[in-house]
Every structure is written in C-alpha cells, then in structure tokens.
Design goal:
The protein has ten helices and no strands. It is mainly α. It has one domain. Helix 6 packs antiparallel against helix 7 (about 175-185). The two termini are about 40 Å apart. The model has no long low-confidence stretch (mean pLDDT about 80).
Length: about 270
C-alpha cells in the first residue's frame, strides 16, 4: 500500500515539475501569473479614486459607462479579432502554406483587417442594440463623431493586433497569452471609465501617448459638456498614424526573421 502511495506521489510530483519547467522557461507565462490580478486592482483602484472625488458625476454615470464599454469593445474586438484570425492559421498549421503561395504579406494583413472589421461590426452592433433595449442608452447619440471615434479605436486595435501576432510568430505559442493580455494593458491608461487626470502625474504623459485616451476624453466631452473636441480627435489621428507605422514595421521585421530561421513551418498546435 505504501509502495502504491509512493509511486502515485512520484507521478504527481513529476507532473508538477513538468509545469514548473514549462512556466520557468516561458517569460509570457510568468508575466501572466501576476498580470491579471495587478490589472484588475489598478483599474478598479482608479475608478474608486474617481468616484470619490467626483460624486456629482454619478448621476450621469450609467449612460456614460455603457457608452464607454461599447467604445472600448470596438478597440478590443478590433485587436482580438485580428489576432484570432492570425492565430487560427498557426493552430491549423496553415501559416507556412500561405507564405509559399502567391499571397503577399500586405494582402494577408488587409484580409485580416477586413475580417476583423466584420467581426467587430457584428459584435459591437449587437451589443449597441441591446444597450438601447435594456438600459435605454444609445451610443448613436454621439452623432457624427461616433464614426471618427470608431475608426480611431479600431485602427489602434489593429495596430496592437499586428504587434501581438508578430510576438507569437517570433516567440511561439508560449506568447499566445499576450494576445489576450496586451489590449488590457492599455485599458487603465486609456481613461475608458475616468479622465486621465485621475492617474498619477507620472503616468499621465504615458496616457497622453495613447490614441484611445484622447477618444474617451472626447466621448465624455460630448456626453457631459455637449462639446466636440476637434483637438482631441486630431491628437488621436496623429498618434494612430505612428502606431500603424510601428506595428507594420514590427510585423514585417518579425516575418522576415521567421522566414530566414524557418519558423513558419515549425509553428502549430
């Protein structure tokens, strides 16, 4: 009996060691262990600070928060839809086949963007309709600026999607978790649910470098002050151009590296 227990303990310990070495050898997995608890604590901490210092804002909170969630989902869906479309090619071991075909990298990117756009429109469109039916909150009250907000947020989502796709291409499937985590890394500094003035002074310049922070500030300016801030939109467009260039350069550079080192045929489930 003791022998059986001993052998069982050895097998259990072997499985524990397997996962220990798996996690120890993958920095994305180590990062993920502390990432989500830290993120949730940070986000809700800033929300609490904002409500404590802006109690008069609570009366308008419902409509503004629902609108913020819907706009945030535009960026989230844009990024995650592009990433999933790319990662599905890796899961199906089809990536190498694609790049030995006449398909060019630019054509692949355009196809991923269009698929992401369709998925985002379906997902956010359905949620927007439900928000009207359930909460009597319509994101369409933002008017014409809604199209500009939507465009800038989805473009930023695409930029992040290309970058995390490149990271998976470079570091393998151990970096897949970054595809889900990256978008939430920018959420606390995007001012989705509160102005960036709530952030610590040292963090505000970082937030100001995010196109999304200007969009959400612009959303609140329309819903609270009934003013369309053209300057905020201009800032978002300029920053997005920088993000797009950086993401394309990173993707092409990693793709070239993967081709040289034969990684396209080694990625799979």
């Amino acid at each position: 009996m003791k022998s059986l227990v001993s052998q069982s303990g050895i097998r259990i310990w072997a499985m524990i060691l397997r996962h220990y070495y798996l996690i120890r050898g993958s920095w994305p997995r180590i990062l993920e262990l502390i990432y989500w608890p830290t993120l949730q604590m940070t986000l809700w901490g800033f929300i609490t600070v904002f409500f404590e210092s802006h109690s008069s804002w609570v009366a308008q909170a419902a409509g503004i928060l629902v609108s913020a969630v819907l706009l945030w989902d535009v960026m989230f869906r844009g990024q995650i839809s592009l990433f999933l479309s790319f990662i599905e090619e890796i899961w199906s071991r089809n990536l190498g086949h694609l790049f030995v075909s006449p398909l060019r990298p630019g054509e692949l990117i355009v196809a991923l963007l269009l698929v992401s756009l369709v998925r985002t429109l379906i997902g956010v469109g359905g949620a927007a309709i439900l928000a009207i039916l359930l909460f009597d909150v319509s994101i369409f009250t933002l008017g014409v600026p809604l199209a500009a907000f939507f465009t800038n947020l989805i473009v930023m989502g695409w930029s992040l999607g290309l970058i995390v796709s490149a990271l998976v291409l470079r570091f393998g499937q151990g970096a897949e978790s970054l595809g889900w985590a990256a978008i939430f890394l920018v959420q606390p500094i995007s001012g989705v649910f509160y102005p960036i003035s709530v952030l610590p002074s040292w963090l505000q310049p970082v937030a100001a470098a995010m196109p999304s922070s200007h969009i959400f500030e612009g959303m609140r300016a329309i819903l609270i002050d009934e003013v369309f801030r053209v300057d905020l939109l201009t800032n978002a467009v300029g920053l997005n151009l920088v993000f797009v260039v950086i993401s394309i350069v990173i993707f092409y550079s990693v793709l070239r590296y993967a081709r040289i080192h034969g990684q396209l045929l080694q990625l799979g489930e």
